[in-house]
Amino acid sequence: MASLLQHALSSQSSSTPEGVVDSPVSHQLPHFHDVTSPNPEKFPGEVGNCRGFLLQCSLVFNRSPQSFLYDDVKISFILGLLGLLRWAEARFTDYNQFGCTYKEFVQEFKH
């Protein structure tokens, strides 16, 4: 019985033709990179341009989602483009933690 088992195992290991290495095929996934987009122009402070400005910012966020994973990063990006520095300085005393979600920030920014 042992000799039959040993013969079966040896015949399985020799089933690979000579010169061919029996190894798993390594599959490499393609690497995806964030698409860089031009930044929107600085927001001039005109209420009529608010929706277009926010749309442009959303396009940047959607094209580079890995760069904008967190609400604070999105808020920082928009604040960097605001021509309303007095409003931003009055609203946010701590520039590391904004104390609101991105959605809340957008709602307040629109009003």
3D architecture notes:
- This protein is an all-alpha fold.
- It has a domain at 41-111.
- The protein is built from five helices and no strands.
- The protein has helices spanning 2-13, 50-63, 71-81, 85-91, 102-110.
- Residues 1-15 have a biased composition (Low complexity).
The proportion of strand residues reads: under 5%
What is the end-to-end distance?
85 Å
Mean pLDDT over the residues: 73
- The helix/strand class is mainly alpha
Give unreliable regions as ranges: 1-9, 11-16
Specify the helix fraction band: 40-55%
Instruction: Please state the overall shape, judged from the principal axes of the Cα atoms.
Output: globular
What is the number of helical segments per DSSP (H or I, 4+ residues)?
5
Q: Give me the Rg, rounded.
A: 29 Å
Sheet having the most strands? none
> How do the SSEs run, as a string of H and E?
HHHHH
Q: Let me know the number of strands.
A: 0
